[in-house]
């Protein structure tokens, strides 16, 4: 039982944090003080009674994790780190300034943020990933706390994460919902209907506790119950008021995302009992029972194919993933009930403890993977049909803002998958993964099994978001097992001094380019062929050099829609040159069911169509 | 109470449909017979006892709606339409052939499909959109039935749709979950734990009924209870077995998505009592109480601004939407709790019955909008921050496969939003909306209030997916109120015979281009400026003509990442020409919080940076 003095100290801390949140948003003339104030007691009790955190090393692998899913309430988080002595008041007053990392929504530019938030409903998946790793991989005592808003519980991703967390019995995970009743533009769907929140979380397998979330004693009791609960995650459903403590504004509409009058701090100050209490409360030190790990260069046993063997790149991905699992116990495979199609099941079979089935919930799949990769505890490889990664586009977008270490392997790309039809055909995945911008983001599109294995190995050794585009059909191995592959490097797979056109393909279309080049040669038209392999970064130098060598005519061929695909990437790569013309063959209408080869023909990316394009070009 | 004979006829129909589903997947050598067979009784009872459908006009506005959310089970749906006499057996045997519309997953190429399915978890949102329109806009008696799989209930979008459906008391909506226990690669999370399904749907506000889903009597009883339930949607949780009726395969692992031995039909045939019963059961005619509507050309009262007035394009969007609402009672606004930021609230205020608040659940927002637009019952305009449309990328992708009539207005684009930081900045939305390929898909990026209003009016009159990219900052009106705008047409907003470079911008960057051109002119460097306006289709002719006129040097400037944005679109538009070089200014790293202007400068898309780029180019 907490002493009355300690409880009062926590109340004082909450009010000091409130004041700081108001001051910083007044200084920045924007931000979310009311969404911060509803959570002041939650943060104060978490930081100064419940969690184990290291003031000097917030991302210590041993410490508890905290995810602020309602990222717009970051002023109260910054205030908590100020109260803990990690940030100064001057620092937090730089909120939202261009030269400050105290941003409008939290990002890992700050040393106490694991994942960027601000797109709502994503935090719980990341927290679940951390908790999964804590319980089953690190087997350590650190716990994971995720503070969510009530409005964001309308996001389906929250329920994907909830189902996952109870399925895997993540009793080291505590979700706290700050039910402050008001969204941005009106009352939330459930308002203060706490019983419905309780029923929903219970139905999704949580130990659900409804409390007054502005009451310090009730919060402390709820954390205790959470710690005592085994084999279930806990949801603390905290009834609060938006703008709590701000006179005239508390529980009122139209105060979302705007500063409140600075004078409002006076009444809050008056409620603080120990006026000199700042710094009195201390963080509890983490328990150091986390295994030390080293994630150096990971080397995989080399590919072992015979040239001409027919192997799908998705199968080679699975083989490589299993071999990476042999090489490093922190390689983690995750899949969305497609493991027998993406071949990630090869890792499951070889190393059952290094695989997490995430079922048909791709947003959570990606969120869990991002969480699992935090603090370098694992190297997560998430796989599903490439088309279904579009379901997690926002999570991948936020992964980029988080500077996440995430590998995505998407299979069944393009019309070449055949009879399953357009809903299953990824035709926009290159655009989606190419737009994620930070230096180390990479997109590989291997053509054969050797390059697919190498792409997977390269991916494991890149710290950043990597997408590997794998295909459904089994096609011949074209490279030697010892052929080297590198980021940003394409391959000239066919060339002669007589070349008059350059064909660029990857995956299934590379085979079509090679077939077309054969046929053209029979008609004495010589064509060079590039296997692009690395779609991002693209091998600009090689493309320009080869394009100039053949006289400036380039034909790109891709099993993808035009926007953001290989054609546009190549056009953009040569845009600074004169004398190079690019013709792009790609899928330009909604495809349909049919045999793979017939679809390549119908949608204009077959060898025949390449031959026609070259002839009309010359 | 159904007669014993009728019940037997329904059982016979179910078995005939089973056989047909097996035969068609044997003929196509691929497909999902086991996922079909679990649902045979559900489909037979729906079609021949419960639903009101018109055999000769399946998409009659008066008829009940059926959404097959578990799209891979389409063989059983095709078999139902065969049993009803709408398809012949020869037709269904063309399953998955390249010249047949009987595709591997259903698409609206078929006259009885409203929305394409096959990406799981999306059907219920579309069904909810139809039910919302039925109850509140058509005020008609048609009902909406959505058949889901159990595996797909892991998708969060299902729970977004569930929350929405109960919030709006959609008692004309029945969700049926075919709980056949097995996913693609293993048992689902809940297996046959029917009580947990019941708790979840009850917690989300449904009248939940657990039954034996292969029992015709229990199904009939459940539909009756659903019809009697007021102010709540119903969920029928049907315990079934995958491959039901197929000896040796029923309830067995490893039979997902593959044909079963054709010999298995013998035992099913033997169970049919009335061997000549095909065609005996008839569909019940729809009740014709749906209002007739005409959606002809919608004309909006013209814009009324003064040149130089500072108006954000998002505000102009709201103004135009409200005026479109004046002109047409079937304009429907939908928003995700951002209506006071996207300004869709102007429609809510003017026409409360033409607006649906969808709360913070963007997947469902888009799904409901797609459903609401089906059978031309409404023209849906969905709005949220453009960044948050990325949450619904898969729904938009499927919208394209559905040939949906959907308008998306995304506000708060790019770094120009300022202090809220990267999580709120749309920098990939052009790529996402550009890749959706069918002839009428359009992307508008208006610069000022006049063009924003016209873009909204144009969108209302296009049958297809239209994206309108609106901005946060208030910028000067530059066009006359009577300036005409058109699909695929840009505007030369500055030109002189002395031009030596062409600047291309849209939105905030157009103002930067104009400022840069002013400054360059002071240094005697003349620059032409194009307002792109229509990003897709792009005004290729105008760009090439102007680029050639100025001597081939083009600078594109966009508040967007490079992949799939304006720069790549322009590069691609001029790729067939020699002598044109394009320099692309865009955002190439993860942005941060700060003032709008400072961010344009820091991320390289300000007037200063344009001036520098031009000088280094010439």
TrEMBL record, chains A, B:
Q: Which Pfam families match?
A: Transket_pyr (PF02779), Transketolase_C (PF02780), Transketolase_N (PF00456)
Determine the domain of life of the protein's source: Eukaryota
What SMART domains does this protein map onto?
A: Transket_pyr (SM00861)
Cofactor(s) annotated in UniProt: thiamine diphosphate; Co(2+); Mn(2+); Ca(2+)
- InterPro entries hit by this protein: THDP-binding (IPR029061), Transketo_C/PFOR_II (IPR009014), Transketolase-like (IPR051424), Transketolase-like_Pyr-bd (IPR005475), Transketolase_BS (IPR020826), Transketolase_C (IPR033248), Transketolase_CS (IPR049557), Transketolase_N (IPR005474)
Primary localization? mitochondrion
The similarity comment for this entry is: Belongs to the transketolase family.
Q: What is this protein called?
A: Transketolase
- Source species of the chain: Syphacia muris
């Amino acid at each position: 039982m907490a002493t009355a003095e300690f409880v009062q100290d926590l109340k004082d801390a909450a009010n000091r944090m409130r004041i700081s949140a108001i001051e910083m948003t007044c200084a920045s003339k924007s931000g979310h003080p009311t969404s911060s104030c509803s959570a002041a007691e939650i943060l104060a009790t978490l930081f100064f009674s419940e969690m184990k955190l290291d003031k000097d090393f917030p991302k210590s692998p041993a410490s508890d994790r905290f995810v602020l899913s309602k990222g717009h309430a970051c002023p109260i988080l910054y205030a908590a780190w100020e109260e803990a002595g990690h940030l100064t008041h001057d620092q937090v007053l730089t909120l939202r300034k261009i030269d400050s990392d105290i941003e409008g929504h939290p990002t890992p530019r700050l040393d106490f943020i694991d994942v960027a938030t601000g797109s709502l409903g994503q935090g719980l998946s990341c927290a679940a990933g951390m908790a999964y790793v804590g319980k089953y991989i690190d087997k350590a005592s650190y716990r994971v706390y995720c503070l969510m808003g009530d409005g964001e519980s309308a996001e389906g991703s929250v329920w994907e994460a909830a189902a996952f967390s109870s399925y895997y019995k993540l009793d080291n995970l505590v979700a706290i919902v700050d039910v402050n009743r008001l969204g941005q533009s009106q009352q939330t769907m459930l308002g203060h209907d706490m019983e419905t929140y309780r029923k929903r979380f219970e139905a999704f397998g949580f130990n659900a506790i409804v409390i007054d979330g502005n009451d310090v004693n009730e919060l402390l009791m709820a954390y205790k119950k959470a710690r005592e609960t085994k084999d279930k995650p806990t949801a603390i459903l905290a009834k609060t008021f938006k703008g709590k403590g701000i006179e005239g504004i508390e529980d009122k509409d139209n105060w979302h995302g705007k500063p409140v009058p600075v004078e409002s701090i006076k009444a809050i100050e008056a409620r603080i009992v120990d006026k000199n209490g700042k710094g009195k409360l201390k963080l509890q030190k983490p328990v150091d029972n986390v295994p030390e790990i080293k994630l150096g260069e990971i080397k995989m046993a080399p590919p072992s194919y015979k040239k001409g063997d027919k192997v799908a790149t998705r199968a080679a991905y699975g083989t490589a993933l299993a071999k990476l699992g042999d090489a490093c116990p922190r390689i983690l495979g995750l899949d969305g009930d497609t493991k027998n199609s993406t071949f990630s099941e090869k890792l499951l079979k070889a190393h059952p403890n290094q695989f997490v089935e995430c079922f048909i919930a791709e947003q959570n799949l990606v969120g869990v993977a991002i969480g699992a990769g935090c603090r370098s505890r694992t190297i997560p490889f998430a796989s599903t049909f490439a088309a279904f990664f579009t379901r997690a586009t926002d999570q991948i977008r936020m992964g980029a803002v988080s500077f996440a270490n995430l590998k995505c392997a998407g299979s069944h790309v393009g019309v070449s998958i055949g009879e399953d039809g357009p809903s299953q055909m990824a035709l926009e995945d290159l655009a989606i993964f190419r737009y994620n911008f930070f230096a180390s983001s990479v997109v590989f599109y291997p053509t054969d099994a050797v390059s697919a294995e190498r792409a997977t190995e390269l991916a494991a050794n890149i710290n950043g978001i990597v997408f590997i585009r794998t295909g459904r059909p089994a096609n011949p191995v074209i490279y030697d097992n010892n052929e080297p592959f590198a980021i940003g490097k394409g391959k000239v797979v066919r060339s002669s001094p007589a070349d008059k056109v350059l064909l660029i393909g990857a995956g299934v279309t590379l085979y079509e380019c090679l077939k077309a080049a054969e046929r053209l040669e029979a008609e004495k038209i010589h064509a060079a062929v590039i296997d692009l392999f690395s779609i991002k970064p693209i091998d600009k130098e090689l493309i320009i050099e080869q394009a100039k060598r053949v006289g400036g005519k380039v034909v790109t061929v891709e099993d993808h829609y035009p926007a953001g695909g290989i054609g546009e990437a190549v056009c953009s790569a040569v845009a600074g040159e004169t004398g190079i013309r690019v013709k792009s063959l790609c899928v330009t209408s909604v495809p349909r069911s049919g045999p793979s080869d017939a679809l390549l023909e119908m949608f204009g990316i077959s060898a025949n169509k390449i031959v026609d394009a070259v002839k009309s070009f010359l």
